[in-house]
């Protein structure tokens, strides 16, 4: 094999197994309701212990759709199996029913505590219904937990960089962050 064709083959193999560099995504609110607000950011309940994620609720459970937050088509991998719950349950290590979108360089974006319905399952979609707002896993009330992690460590820049704080309106028309994926 000539060097040039060998290099072309290597480049093609690298492209096939490497998802590419991590890039900025856009995340809107997960609930299409003007009554949806951010209730926790860097700290639980805004002033409690460390959280480093967004908790978003609209005061409902098992009623409003919990939507994919990422703008554009993304592959949402579903981890289910938790019975319906609004105020917490022991399931999936505290995550409850949840989704993970995987990016490059160890980055991922997760949405937790889903109350499963017919919409719940692995899929590729743009802000589609993923289930209902609920409290499966470690939750004291129904809400959507959203985090952006690199190699499992939660990061805060994705929401602090766009000014999202406790009390920010989280209707699905509003941008809440720019996670890395
Ligand atoms: Zn949370």
Describe the structure.
It is built from two helices and twelve strands, in the order H-E-E-E-E-E-E-E-E-E-E-E-H-E. The chain has a single domain (24-177), classed as Glucose Permease (Domain IIA) (Distorted Sandwich). Mean pLDDT is 92; it is low at 10-17. It has helices at residues 3-17, 157-160; strands at residues 27-28, 37-40, 54-57, 65-67, 74-79, 97-102, 107-114, 123-125, 129-132, 144-150, 153-155, 175-177. Strand 10 and strand 11 form a beta hairpin. The strands form three sheets. Strands 2, 3, 5, 6, 7, 8, 10 and 11 form an eight-stranded antiparallel sheet that branches. Strands 1-12 form a two-stranded antiparallel ribbon. The protein binds zinc ion (ZN). Zinc ion binds at residues 40, 51, 53, 55, 145. Zinc ion (ZN) binds next to loops.
Main beta sheet: strand number and arrangement?
8 strands, antiparallel
Net shape: globular
Class in CATH?
Mainly Beta
What is the string of helix and strand elements?
HEEEEEEEEEEEHE
Q: Summary?
A:
The protein is mostly beta strands and 181 residues long. The protein contains two helices and twelve strands. It has helices at residues 3-17, 157-160; strands at 27-28, 37-40, 54-57, 65-67, 74-79, 97-102, 107-114, 123-125, 129-132, 144-150, 153-155, 175-177.
């Amino acid at each position: 094999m000539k060097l040039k064709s060998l290099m072309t083959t290597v480049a093609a193999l690298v492209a096939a197994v490497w998802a590419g560099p991590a890039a900025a995504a856009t995340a809107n609110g997960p609930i299409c309701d003007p009554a949806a607000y951010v209730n926790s950011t860097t700290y639980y309940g805004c002033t409690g212990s460390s959280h480093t994620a967004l908790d978003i609720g609209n005061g409902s459970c098992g009623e409003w759709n919990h939507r994919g937050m990422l703008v554009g088509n993304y592959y949402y991998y579903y981890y289910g199996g938790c019975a319906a719950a609004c105020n917490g349950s022991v399931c999936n290590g505290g995550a409850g029913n949840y989704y993970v979108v995987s990016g490059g360089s160890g980055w991922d974006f997760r949405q937790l505590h889903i109350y499963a319905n017919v919409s719940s399952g692995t899929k590729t979609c743009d802000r589609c219904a993923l289930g209902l707002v609920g409290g499966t896993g470690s939750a004291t009330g129904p809400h959507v937990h959203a985090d952006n992690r690199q190699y499992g460590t939660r990061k805060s820049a994705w929401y602090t960089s766009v000014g999202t704080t406790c009390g920010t309106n989280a209707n699905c028309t509003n941008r809440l962050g720019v996670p890395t994926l």
